[in-house]
Specification:
10% strand, Gyrase A, domain 2, 13 strands, 53% helix, 4-stranded parallel sheet, binds arginine, 4-stranded antiparallel sheet, alpha/beta
């Protein structure tokens, strides 16, 4: 099965070929000017330039050849040389029916399947999850789901920060307090910032923490046992928090897992002449003559022989290559780390840690700011814990729903639904912005039921669900599943159908651009088209059975496309509100 635009490109490409031109010129896409036409092809423009011909003449020849083709209700050449198309109703409906027959609405067809790892989350053990971790979790989860939806094999790895000085700090402080093990996550959360502050003022303590880190990294029993306990407490707490966000990892690996690979890797880099000593440290040159700004050498070991963040990331690549040999790895990490990843990727390719063909990408995301335009903080100016942010938004959503007099739900149901919609509000608020840009976290705006928000999408989906429920009650015993789509009656209905037909194309390009915001933009438009259609159509009270059933089929299919879309965004659906 092909996407609708592929089918049109096929036909128009053939017409170009028949007229003696290249097939590729016939590429058709959704129109930028829906007021003029539904689809467009700009191929004659580029072609004319190359062949030194008049573009309008080429377009006219092609348009003439398409006359009488039932796929199009309009195929016309317009100056200076564009082709504008509208599609016939029957063709459009057939395409939608074909989409509806497949589980993924046809989006996963014709895609070369890859093995992809998504490295996201990246929290540091023993520190509470704070809003700085929100974006990695939300965006990474969505990319993982988009890839899977399109049929790729996708492995999500959290890549815990579980091996650095912060572990030594905690161990040193535990020992000073005369404690064998930590008892709880709250104890750890108190100890870490305390020890971190202390190390800044107290040189001896800092030395001690470094020693503990060294012992841990060299496998000494006591420190390793404490580390295990810290990990147990932390991971349980992290799982609980990520679950609230509907975020799940396939692998709970961390920097520590890369440790066994470091020694051999460093030895090889030295032996093969890639790594050399510079000011005591071991480095690999990664400059490229095409660079416009200088990329400093990648440091592999510090002068005291200690491993660094780059070292664990490189060793992790050794491990990933050995265990999974992925075609592609996507790192969803704060964009301020872009130099780090540039160095790591270049070193990995240059030294053959990964093959040249492996795609390594850093999707660097921007900062989540408060309304003042500065990084989001608590009212007191501290770092906001993720848990608190989530419960604040849930409370806000609950209040909003509670104040609606028309609501027909018990208090308990309101709580539950408000919980789901609040998460949708947070995730959609984040995902609807281009990942690389900073954005403002605005609870009022995000929780609004109007505009480009998660609650508006949820509301529209619940609206469709409720119409389908009402229909099933009124026409008891009718088999909604068997209803067939009918040709559109109104411009609003056709507009909705056209939007639905774009789903596969949209999903494919959203994933190739690593752009969940494209999915959000799509469902926002879909919601608008649906609401416009519903505004002019009396579905349930329609007397003509055939029309009524056609519309119910359209509603079901619209809901299916919505469900697929929110599923890839990692947003759970609400049933009633
Ligand atoms: N733990 C790191 C941090 O807090 C993020 C890890 C991202 N992933 C990676 N492979 N480096 O900055």
């Amino acid at each position: 099965m092909n996407y609708l635009t592929d089918k049109l490109s096929e036909i128009v490409g053939q017409a170009f070929e028949d007229a003696g031109f290249e097939r590729e010129a016939g590429k058709v896409r959704f129109s930028d000017r829906p007021d003029l036409c539904e689809f467009q092809c700009n191929g004659a423009m580029a072609l004319a330039k190359r062949e030194k011909k008049n573009p309008f003449d080429i377009a006219e020849t092609v348009a003439a050849a398409l006359k009488g083709n039932e796929v199009f209700s309009k195929a016309e050449a317009v100056r200076p040389g564009f082709l504008n198309f509208n599609v016939g109703d029957a063709f459009l409906v057939d395409c939608l029916k074909e989409m509806d027959r497949t589980e993924k609405c046809g989006a996963d067809q014709d895609i070369k399947h890859e093995k992809i790892m998504v490295d996201y989350g990246g929290p540091n053990v023993a520190k509470p999850l704070h809003i700085g971790h929100l974006r990695a979790a939300i965006i990474g989860e969505s990319l993982k789901r988009m890839g899977r939806f399109l049929g790729h094999e996708v492995i999500g790895d959290i890549h815990l920060g579980d091996w650095g000085l912060q572990m030594g700090l905690i161990i040193a402080e535990l020992k000073e307090r005369g404690k064998e093990f930590p008892d709880s996550i709250s104890e750890l959360e108190e100890i870490y910032p305390f020890a971190s502050e202390k190390s800044k003022k107290d040189e001896a303590f800092r030395e001690k923490a470094m020693e503990e880190t060294f012992k841990l990294q060299h496998g000494e029993k006591q420190e390793t046992d404490i580390w295990h306990r810290i990990m147990e407490l932390s991971v349980a707490d992290l799982k609980k928090n990520y679950e609230k966000l509907n975020v799940e990892f396939d692998l709970w690996k961390g920097e520590s897992d890369a440790d066994p690979y470091i020694a051999d890797m460093v030895k090889r880099l030295k032996d093969e002449g890639y790594a050399y000593e510079s000011e005591g440290a071991l480095v690999v040159d990664v400059t490229d003559e095409k660079d416009s700004k200088e990329i400093p050498p990648c440091m592999i070991l510090k002068s005291d022989g200690a491993a660094l963040y780059t070292t664990t990331d490189l060793a992790t690549l050794v491990q990933r290559e050995q265990d999974y040999a992925p075609d592609r790895i996507i790192y969803v990490v704060d964009k301020r780390q872009s130099l780090h990843f540039e160095q790591v990727f270049r070193t990995a390719k240059k030294t053959g840690i990964v093959p040249e063909s492996t795609i390594l990408e850093h999707l660097g995301f921007g900062t989540m700011n408060g309304k003042d335009g500065k990084p989001f903080k608590t009212r007191e100016g501290g770092v906001m814990r993720l848990e608190i942010l989530i419960s604040d938004v849930q409370e806000e959503m609950y209040k909003k729903m509670k104040s609606n007099e028309n609501i027909n739900l018990s208090d308990e149901e309101i709580r539950e639904t408000a919980g789901i919609i609040a998460i949708a509000a947070i995730k959609y608020g984040d995902l609807s912005n281009q990942a690389s840009k900073d954005y403002v976290f605005d609870t009022d705006k995000f929780t609004s039921f109007e505009g480009n928000t998660g609650p508006y999408i949820m509301y529209t989906m619940v609206r469709i669900k409720s119409i389908l429920r009402k229909y099933a009650e009124k026409y008891e015993g009718s088999d909604i599943e068997s209803f067939e789509l009918k040709t559109p009656e109104s411009p609003e209905e056709k507009a909705l159908m056209l939007k639905l037909s774009a789903f596969g194309t949209m999903m494919r390009s959203a994933f190739s651009e690593l752009a969940p915001h494209r999915v959000c933009a799509y469902i926002y438009e879909l919601a608008n088209e649906f609401n416009r259609f519903y505004h002019v159509t009396k579905v349930i009270t329609e007397e003509d059975r055939e029309k009524r059933e056609g519309w119910i089929a359209l509603l079901s299919f619209t809901l299916k496309v919505f469900s697929c879309s929110v599923e890839v965004l990692g947003i759970k659906e609400a049933e009633r509100m």
